[in-house]
Design goal:
Blueprint: H1 3-13, E1 17-21, H2 38-50, E2 56-59, H3 62-65, H4 68-81, E3 87-94, H5 98-109, H6 111-114, E4 120-123, H7 129-132, E5 142-148, E6 161-162, E7 165-166, H8 167-175, E8 184-188, H9 195-202, E9 208-210, H10 220-227, E10 234-238, H11 240-243, H12 251-272
Parallel strand pairs: 1-2, 1-10, 2-3, 3-4, 4-5, 5-8, 8-9, 9-10
Antiparallel strand pairs: 6-7
Helix pairs in contact: 2-4, 2-12
GO molecular function: orotidine-5'-phosphate decarboxylase activity
Protein name: Orotidine-5'-phosphate decarboxylase
Pathway: Pyrimidine metabolism; UMP biosynthesis via de novo pathway; UMP from orotate: step 2/2
Length: about 280
């Protein structure tokens, strides 16, 4: 999916919502355990209930890898079930020496070998350019680079000064020599608030994947105040706040209700900004 196609989906659905599929056996409604593959059934019902309200789905691969072979099958089948016009994100946070990153890229981008071809994958930049560029060799695929995250420990490294820059700023500046805003996005946590202004000074045209709205306490209006650009430029992820809205038989309906609340808020923001 190209950047323009993603923006067109945002305009069509009046939404820039990404639904995180962090699906775990101990958190999904217990009545689903009767199914042969409870997590896959859960994901399918969540997707069916929200696909007209969101523009992206983001399975966190750790929630699948932990179940071994069955988990990988579930991840593969979940990717297949995501509608093709919805942006798909493999939240894998990979990044290793070049030949290893090349294999990771094959895993998430080459359906001929892995049966999966996500639109994008999250990548850790710590090992530098040769750990990232193998992911960029796939046409119309995206790298979503970790920049300024929403976890408590982000300050251990990301805010440390490297010369005139903080480390996250150095990551953003340097990585723009590897790819353009047509193939690279950045992860910026919703709990970082006004720091979006600093990010936008360095990357005004890039899309930002924004976790942390909902259960982690991020504020959508503040994120948009500093982070919105001429093509929206934001994918706001909500995982637990949507998919675990109910533990009952009505879980899919409740998930839709929570997704709809966010979509309606996003629609107002897009209208006010003149983007729809």
């Amino acid at each position: 999916m190209t950047k323009q196609q993603l923006f067109e989906q945002i305009q069509k659905k009046r939404s820039f919502l990404c639904v995180g599929l962090d699906s775990s056996l101990d958190k999904i409604p217990q009545h689903l355990l009767k199914y042969e593959n409870p997590i896959l059934e859960f994901n399918k019902q969540i997707i069916d209930a929200t696909k007209d309200l969101c523009v992206a789905y983001k399975p966190n691969t750790a929630f699948y890898e932990c179940y071994g072979k069955k988990g990988w099958e579930t991840l593969t089948e979940t990717w297949k079930y995501i509608p093709q016009d919805i942006f798909s994100i493999a939240d894998a946070k990979r990044g290793d020496i070049g030949n290893t990153s090349a294999m990771y890229a094959e895993t998430f981008f080459n359906a001929a070998s892995s049966e999966m071809s996500f639109d994008s994958v999250t990548v850790a930049p710590y090992m530098g350019s040769d750990s990232v560029t193998p992911f960029l060799n796939f046409k119309d695929k995206w790298v979503i680079l970790l920049a300024l995250t929403s976890n408590v420990g982000h300050a251990d490294f990301q805010l440390q000064e490297v010369g005139a820059d903080r480390l996250f700023e150095k990551v953003i500046k340097t990585s723009q020599t590897w790819a353009t805003d047509e193939q690279m996005m950045y992860v910026v946590g919703a709990t970082r608030g006004a720091a979006f202004g600093d990010v936008r000074k360095l990357a005004p045209e890039h899309f930002l994947l924004v976790p942390g709205v909902g259960a982690q306490g991020g504020d959508l209006s503040e994120v948009c105040k500093y982070g919105l650009n001429s093509q929206c430029g934001l994918l706001i992820n909500s995982s637990r706040g949507i998919i675990y809205a109910s533990q009952g038989a009505d879980f899919a309906e409740r998930a839709r209700e929570e997704a709809l609340k966010l979509q309606q808020e996003m629609e107002q923001i897009l209208v006010k900004a003149g983007l729809v």
